[in-house]
Amino acid sequence: MDLLRLATAGSVDDGKSTLIGRLLYDSKSIFEDQLESIESTSASRGDEHTNLALLTDGLRAEREQGITIDVAHRYFATPERKFIIADTPGHIQYTRNMVTGASTADLAIILIDARKGILEQSKRHSFIANLLRIPHLVLAINKMDLVDYDQERFLEIKREYTEFASRLQFSDLTFIPMSALHGDNVVERSANMDWYRGATLLHHIEEVHIASDRNLVDVRFPVQYVVRPQSTEHHDYRGYAGTVAGGMMKPGDEVMVLPSGFTTRITEITSGSEHLESAIAPMSVTIRLADELDVSRGDMICRPNNQPTVTQDLEAMVCWMSEASQLRSGSKLAIKHTTRWARAMVKDLRYQLDVNTGHRLEDVTELGLNQIGRVRLRTTQPMLADEYHRNRTTGSFILVDEASNVTVGAGMIIDTE
Amino acid sequence: MKTQLSHLATLEAEAIHIVREVAAEFERPVMLFSGGKDSIVMLHLAIKAFSPAPVPFPIMHIDTGHNFDEVIKFRDRRAAECGVRLVVASVQDAIDAGRVVEETGPRASRNRLQTTALLDAIEEHRFDALFGGARRDEEKARAKERIFSFRDEFGQWDPKGQRPELWNLYNGRHKPGEHMRVFPISNWTELDVWHYIRDEEIEVPNIYYAHRRPVFQRDGMWLAVTPHITLMENELVEDRMVRFRTIGDATCTGAVDSPASRIEQIIEEVAATRITERGATRADDRVTEAAMEDRKKEGYF
């Protein structure tokens, strides 16, 4: 059984929480005490049906206002797969939460209200999913019951979206007509839409092939922690602990340590006391090297003929996440990339991306909350970087305000020089 | 060649990554350890993360004084075996020092008093990161909490002001006096924990397995008869075959009827159950619908 991380995005009233509630309910992942609790809350609020949305609305403010204010994580499993759902709110002011929830997603579900069709926020969510390089996208055309389960309406939305998405780089796009409220095509096939021959949502996410989404080519191992027991038993032991960010490593492989550039061989890969024949992303392992080199946290182990770029200049798309400050040319921030912290200065804000239209706005001087733009950064130390589309781990970074320590930006490297 | 990890291997790798990040970036981390299954798994992950070196931080138990003896024995033995230093922060000491006032009556619980003992210990030892074994599937407020969860100088959680958390890039930066709560097994479910305990052959206190003990019913739960709890009128003690799904303060942790005496039976039982572990066994979470949210804001685990 493997693990699929999925993110959901939708507008406030698209029925996203209802959809998740339905997935959990119909896959029997809701417990009786949870159901009783939402039944009584629904009844006291005077809701007509048991409001499945209450399952995911965890905080007091959300239940009172009937909105979702932060990323919530839900878990369920079928015999095929285990799922982690990052449920992210759809309002414009919470774009940062979608970025947060979707950064590690294998698959995103974007909800569309069949009555309303594709809205500005559907496009915004699509741009963000595309920017984050989520490999698989599902367009859930919801509330089909309110358009009489009309195939024409479904096809019309599908045509419109396909045309819009042709400008984006989704390799896998799936359209499913459904009614989350009534359960059509969520877990059970819909009796109301016999014209739809595709998979139900659950069947689709159980079957979608994610193994080939991993980068097994470019060996990348950011050193996270140096293990030195300093005991008599392990007197000379020196291991480099970290999480494999790409490629496949094996004992005997010739490797290069960056930024120093020394080459050596892997002698041993372990997990706890177990010796491994190989390691791939995202395994957390400890490796030992044949030569005694000066290797520390923040260094990167790769192959001599396949290296990340060592650079102090990063070209990146940055999503700004702070309401308290703006990103401007000249802004100085802390940056964390893999296991390396440094300082960064914004050298240039090249353009802002209008996430509703995909247009570039060239004349901007700052990025505010939830705005996305292309920037050029200069860092105090060399970064060991890949382009984000090749590697989501070595191609991403966060920006942190040095005064408040708050994470204010999320960056995706688009060009390494 | 294997190119896809199992879900448990993925969760394990994520947790080890988190534990190592904290060890690398914080001055004085500590791992909360109650002797419950989640903290046992977390400690096991920490041992794996630094092997063959010892775990580079102490563990801490917030001791309400209302314990199951089996669990305290297990705690002490496990700490000794792993060679980690055990810090015990005592609620009884906080009561004796007049820092907190104990609830009275048959339903008195020291659950809430743990927050003071915890925050006092953080201040005393100047801990800057606390690992907790909380899981997001346990409870609604926890479902919305970050893996690195910032606490201000009063230990408070601000659910609406949480730092964005992206990829595996955790931001642990903080000022002196502030700290981070870190939840390495956030993404695990109760069933994942049991599967992992089975696969890794991890020992847990025997009260997780079915055993006979005197219990009485209160609020629809079986509570153990202990010196710390006062029976109310009409509460009848009977001997039953039970096990504990969670381990906490003995006065508010309920047992469930169960014949599961082996791990495979527990897994079957957990997989088939229709009630959440907190709903089944924790009086402390039943107080109000937002009980956990309120306690977390004040600095609770």
Features:
heterodimer, A: 417 residues, alpha+beta, Rossmann fold, Elongation Factor Tu (Ef-tu), domain 3, 3 domains, 6-stranded mixed β-sheet, 6-stranded antiparallel beta barrel, 7 helices, B: 301 residues, alpha/beta, 2 domains, 4-stranded antiparallel barrel, 9 helices, 10 strands, globular
How would you describe this structure to a colleague?
The complex is a heterodimer of chains A (417) and B (301). Chain A is an alpha+beta fold and 417 residues long. Chain A folds into three domains: 2-213, P-loop containing nucleotide triphosphate hydrolases (Rossmann fold), CATH 3.40.50.300; 221-302, Elongation Factor Tu (Ef-tu), domain 3 (Beta Barrel), CATH 2.40.30.10; 309-415, Translation factors (Elongation Factor Tu (Ef-tu), domain 3). Chain A is built from seven helices and 24 strands. In chain A, strands 2-3-1-4-5-6 form a six-stranded mixed beta sheet, with helices on both faces. In chain A, strands 7-8-14-11-10-15 form a six-stranded antiparallel barrel. In chain A, strands 16-22-19-18-23-24 form a six-stranded antiparallel β-barrel. The longest helix of chain A is centred in the middle third of the chain and has 15 residues, at 151-165. The mean pLDDT of chain A is 89. Chain B is of the alpha/beta class and 301 residues long. Chain B has two domains: 7-192 and 290-298, HUPs (Rossmann fold, 3-Layer(aba) Sandwich); 206-285, no CATH class. In chain B, 33% of the residues lie in helices and 16% in strands. Chain B has nine helices and ten strands. Chain B has helices at 7-25, 37-50, 69-82, 91-96, 114-125, 190-199, 263-272, 277-281, 291-298, and strands at 29-32, 59-63, 86-90, 129-131, 148-151, 179-182, 211-218, 221-224, 238-244, 254-257. In chain B, the strands form two sheets. In chain B, strands 3-2-1-4-6-5 form a six-stranded mixed beta sheet. A four-stranded antiparallel β-barrel of chain B has the order 7-8-10-9. In chain B, strand 7 (211-218) and strand 8 form a beta hairpin. The termini of chain B are far apart. The relative contact order of chain B is 0.16.
